[in-house]
Amino acid sequence: MSLKRLLKQAFLKVGALYYNSSGSKVIYYHDIHDRKKYTDMSTPIELFKKHIDILRECDYRPVAEIKNREKEVEITFDDGFRGIYENFSFFVDNNIPVRIFLISGSIGEKEYLEKTQIEQMLETGLLTVGSHTVSHNNLDNMDEITAVKELKESKKALEDMFGREIKTLCFPRGKFSDRTIRLAFELGYEKLYSCLPGNYHVPFKKGLVNRSLVQHADEAEFKKILQGADKIFFNRYLKQQYRPGET
Ligand SMILES: [Zn+2]
Q1: Residue 75 lies in a domain
Q2: What distance separates the 2 farthest-apart alpha carbons in the chain?
Q3: Is 80 inside any structural domain?
Q4: Which domain holds residue 92?
Q5: Separation of 162 CA from ligand 1 center, angstroms?
Q6: What is the pLDDT of residues 110-165, one digit of tens each?
Q7: How close is the Cα of 173 to the center of ligand 1, in Å?
Q8: CA-to-CA distance for 169 and 184, rounded, in angstroms?
Q9: Alpha carbon distance 209, 32 (integer Å)
Q10: Beta partners for 99?
Q11: 77 within a domain of the structure (yes/no)
């Protein structure tokens, strides 16, 4: 095992002691694969199934949208890779709701979901889609006009394509600033999904959603993260991801 992984596990052990909670939370992945892998961020279906088993063992209920303070979990995927479609029968068989943040400019491109595949998943009633902007570029590195365009056009493209209102945004690369938050709310987004770990009902700022990355977590790590242990990384991630003020 790599030193980095060992260190992460040691931190999670400490985090599990300090932050143990049964609060509802959002977890995130990038894709799922059986044989064909579309990205290195993809999770093997066998590992994903183990995560679902652990959710059940720990009494966590996968939901489309968190309503209760405790024991609910929202499962989200970023970028919209194709593997999720190829493995979607697992979600259907087990009645697992999922939210995918789509990069509107990448739909139909190599490795990414096609429009018809997204439509088929939407028809099951298990899929909710949100915006991950048009280009997936860091919104804080753009001038305001370009950032507005990214937020506005992705929302409109998805709404036109799938005939439903898009109210959720996921920050590309997890990066955000006070300007990005302001613009997103001004343009009609209601919930902004970050990559900061923590409970759903304890947001860093109003309207922001915490999420825990679990795509490569083994069973022990997943269990600890579910209990809130990754909160120990909060300040480090905040420093990397959040630019205070108007950029
Ligand atoms: Zn992304």
Answers
A1: no
A2: 48
A3: no
A4: 3-70+86-243
A5: 20
A6: 999 999 999 999 999 999 999 999 999 999 999 999 999 999 999 999 999 999 99
A7: 5
A8: 8
A9: 23
A10: 76, 128
A11: no
Nearby residues for ligand 1 (ion, Cβ within 5 Å): 78-79
pTM above 0.85, yes or no: yes
Instruction: Tell me the CA–centroid distance for residue 96 and ligand 1, in Å.
Output: 22
CA of 17 to the centre of ligand 1 (A): 31
Task: Please state the domain count of the chain.
Answer: 1
Ligand 1 centre distance from Cα of residue 193 (Å): 11
Kindly state the DSSP code that residue 164 receives in the 8-state scheme.
Answer: S
Query: Which of these, 167, 146, 173, lies nearest to 155 by C-alpha position?
Result: 167
- Quote the tokens at residue 21: 């909670």
- pLDDT tens-digit map of 3-57: 888 888 888 888 887 787 899 999 999 999 998 999 999 999 999 999 999 999 9
CATH number of the domain encompassing residue 110:
3.20.20.370
Q: How far is the CA of 58 from the centre of ligand 1 (A)?
A: 28
Cα(120) to centroid of ligand 1, in Å?
22
Decide if 79 is inside a domain: no
